[in-house]
Protein 1
Amino acid sequence: MKKFVPLMIIGAFLLNGCAYMQQWNPWAEEKPQEEVRESKVNPFLWQASLDKLGFMPIQSKNQDTGVIVTGWYNESQKAKEQFKLEVQILSKELRSDGVKVKGQSRKLVNGEWQTENMSLEMEQVIELSILKRARILYQQSFIQ
């Protein structure tokens, strides 16, 4: 029995060493490395944009590129006028220049849609609305 105790201890060390040495074993199966994705856009600006555009149909959204595109939207009172927006989050930081809005509007004239770019002032009003919502979300993150 006394001969088996040292053999068991040596065996335990060898087995432990094999597990440790497996990381350098060229024949061992490679474990898939977990990919850690870090967002390229500010999460508060992203969520604020989705919140503010929630009443419109979202045509596409991609958080990796920070782009949200809506479909055409019209208010029920003005069925002959529609608009659509493209919002792009430009920064990882919560900054006033971290969001850019481009919009188009179209009107039904003589049975045909006439499309034009939205005014710069209107785009800026939407940007400010998104920034205000992002600031509120940021402040709420400290309360919770």
Protein 2
Amino acid sequence: MTISGKHIVITGGASGLGLELVKQLHTRNQLTIISRPSAGLDQLREKYAGIGIYEAELSDLAQVERAADQIVKDHDAIDILINNAAAQYTPKFLDDDFCYHHIKREIDINFTSVCSLIYLTLPALLNSKSAIILNVNSGLGLVPKTSSAIYCATKGALNILSQSLRHQFEETNIKVMQAFLPLVDTGMTEGRGSGKLPANQVAADIISGLAKKRLDIDIGKAKFLRPIARFLPALARKIMKAS
């Protein structure tokens, strides 16, 4: 199934999974990208002239506010908001290379900016005939691993936020969906883990789930983690602790 004729806003669309979503969605839809300045963003601007680009460092909430306000001024409606951008730092709290200053940055990118964007773009989302907010999550939002504690916590918070907003928007035109991902082969995961899924495959699975309006899109190993976490939570914790 495909998606067409929609105005879609994507965060972090200049690289990794976000860029794959852009590649697969741009021909049939109007795309707006929110991303920090980078060489990848410059290349995106050159290759896809019809895409709207709003520069914002998502760890800087003032920039997030400016970008969201401008998008709402420039566009009457948003049909799909994809909160895709994320940051992950792997050191444990006891490691010598753990950076205290990364705590706030990781929370702001992965969670606070998502809350802000959803609220600030609500006028345009409510103007759509049928709107979707898709929060790109992780299996770590269901069960945490040992490293990347802040990342795991933000993804757990994103899961709860999404469920609560489903209740809040129940009588509106807005559906809140999530995509729970396994390890995806992107720049963020370079040098970590094995058995990664290619980003283009994951993007295709997300788009298929969007088209089918599945509230929770479980991809790859996340399909198996959910039932294990539900019926055998101790086993799920053991598996993810060692991952």
